[in-house]
Design brief:
Number of helices: 23
Helix content: over 70%
Strand content: under 5%
Number of strands: 2
Order of helices and strands: HHHHHHHHHHHHHEEHHHHHHHHHH
Shape: globular
Strand order of the largest sheet: 1-2
């Protein structure tokens, strides 16, 4: 194990990074809300708590997140059951595809459902500006959380417990209610808490589909800061949202703890089996059909509408991205926006990978309470709104050096959001490395640095690859923070898409850019699954 002094030196870098780029901006937001004009005042908080408009926004944020969670869990449970209990051709591929919606940028999800349920939709129903479009989009985006979270647990629950209940005369519903559901409750609650969190902090989906008729706290913070220049009210709303998110994170942590300690599980290979009867095959086919309809339809319609032109099917929307007739719509050409996105993604991956690896080293090497506290603090950006992070950068990072005009601020914001994923990807693998391997290297004369390079690094290489692809996917699709700090010349693909949507006559170009962004992120998602499958042996 590393010495205390070396751990302090290693941990100092992620601690300073997190302190300056996360904790300091959050505290500045709090100060801006409480001391808007240099004197302590609570008028912004009073307005936030008493204004009928703000209360309406808060109430909508709460109940839409709750309803989104109920729908997602209700639809996700039968799909999780099929993947947990049955083996069938294409199971591994289909399971990988369920991850694609979750890693898609929220702006792409919003545009996809705008293509399906918006003006000119193929089904003849315009649901833009209604709660239904928002709910459908949230189910699409969050379904993988339930399928993965509950399914991974379900496929290890011993089916003999359910068989015993049936032998005693219990019907299917009673078996599920009295045996299966109590066993799954911790996993369901954990997944539901995470779905609620993502729906509660939804930004891109609400901004595109809500049509300003339905706004969440996330969107309202953005509007107050950018449209009305009410930084004090935006700060007050951000603080209230942080309180709500903190409560959700505590509940999520408790649910995860209960899940991990609930009961001894069996290997999944001993549980899942091939369908044995026509009824079971019908259940599998029906459920997979539902999954295909939910996941494939929005993406397929998005691609079809990106090819639709006034003269028929063609590539003119894509051609306009190369030679845009209305470049002023996005202030920067779409091709430059694509180049900006990829240029920002590279340093974001490097920053997130470096900081995350140092942080993971400290978490694994530190013992007891200090390691757990450090781990918890590093997870805070995951539960914090990206809009809040971007807003914090806007109001805080002018001292001691004004970084708000720096081109590095965008990849730093992206890295900040990605670091928790890097830590979560690498810590379990680093913890599994046997200490005697390092001792053997030391006995053979290897220095600690060489031992790490030749023992630890090869073993964590795949985990680092997964973390890098996660960071890349997050960077290219990040919208909330970037919407605050991007300048006209540094617009990324998500920012350009939103600007195109707000400009008459560029709807097709917005669809085309969304397809390009979807393709980039989908490749990263499938790469993640491929590396994970190689590491774990696949499904």
């Amino acid at each position: 194990m590393r010495s205390r002094r070396s751990l302090l030196l290693i941990g100092a870098i992620p601690a300073v990074f997190l302190g300056y780029f996360f904790i300091y901006p959050v505290l500045t937001i709090l100060y801006t809300g409480l001391v808007p004009d240099g004197e302590i005042a609570t008028s912004a908080f009073t307005e936030a708590l008493t204004s009928p408009t703000v209360r309406g926004v808060a109430w909508f944020t709460l109940w839409q997140a709750l309803l989104s969670t109920v729908l997602t869990v209700s639809i996700g449970l039968p799909i999780a059951y099929v993947f947990a209990r049955y083996r069938f051709p294409g199971r591994s591929l289909l399971r990988s595809l369920t991850l694609v919606p979750f890693v898609l940028p929220t702006i792409v999800v919003g545009v996809a459902f705008l293509a399906v349920l918006g003006p000119g939709a193929p089904f003849g129903v315009n649901l833009r500006g209604t709660i239904w479009a928002i709910l459908f989009a949230h189910v699409f985006y969050n379904l993988a959380i339930v399928i993965r979270g509950v399914g991974a647990f379900w496929e290890q629950v011993d089916p003999r417990l359910e068989d015993a209940a049936r032998v005693l005369g219990a019907g299917t519903l009673r078996v599920f209610r009295t045996v299966t559901l109590p066993l799954l409750r911790p996993a369901i609650l954990s997944s539901a808490a995470l779905v609620f969190l993502f729906s509660f902090t939804s930004f891109g989906v609400i901004l595109v589909l809500g049509d300003l008729r339905h706004t969440t706290l996330e969107v309202e913070i953005w509007r107050q800061a950018t449209a009305f220049l009410r930084l004090d009210l935006a700060a007050a709303l951000a603080v209230l949202q942080l309180v709500g998110v903190s409560v959700l994170l505590v509940l999520y942590g408790r649910a995860r703890k209960r899940r991990s300690a609930e009961l001894a599980l069996r290997p999944s290979q001993e549980v899942a089996r091939a369908p044995r009867s026509t009824r079971e095959w019908a259940v599998v086919a029906t459920t997979l059909g539902l999954l295909a309809m939910i996941v494939v339809t929005p993406l397929a319609v998005l691609m079809w509408r990106s090819l639709s032109t006034p003269s028929g099917i063609g590539l003119s929307n894509y051609a306009n991205l190369i030679d845009p007739p209305r470049a002023s719509a996005v202030f920067v050409s779409p091709t430059d926006a694509i180049a900006n996105t990829l240029q920002f993604a590279i340093p974001a991956v490097l920053i997130a990978g470096g900081i995350g690896l140092l942080a993971a080293t400290v978490i694994v090497s530190a013992r007891g309470r200090s390691g757990r506290i450090f781990d918890t603090v590093l997870m805070l950006p995951l539960g914090t709104s990206a809009v809040t992070i971007g807003f914090g950068f806007l109001v805080a990072l002018d001292q001691p050096v004004d970084l708000r005009a720096s081109i590095l601020l965008i990849p730093i914001a992206h890295a900040l959001v990605a670091i928790p994923f890097v830590v979560r990807s690498t810590v379990p693998v680093m913890e599994s490395i046997q200490h005697r391997l390092r001792e053997a290297a030391a006995v053979l004369g290897a220095s600690p640095r060489r031992a790490w390079r030749e023992v630890d690094l090869p073993l964590i290489a795949r985990a680092l690859a997964v973390a890098a692809m996660f960071a890349f996917a997050i960077s290219v699709g990040e919208f909330g923070a970037t919407s605050f700090i991007a300048r006209p010349a540094t617009a990324t693909i998500p920012v350009a898409i939103f600007r195109l949507l707000g400009r008459p006559g560029t709807f097709g170009e917005a669809m085309a850019m969304s397809v390009i962004l979807m393709a980039i992120v989908a490749v990263a998602a499938l790469g993640i699954e491929a590396v994970r499958g190689t590491r774990s042996g696949g499904v």
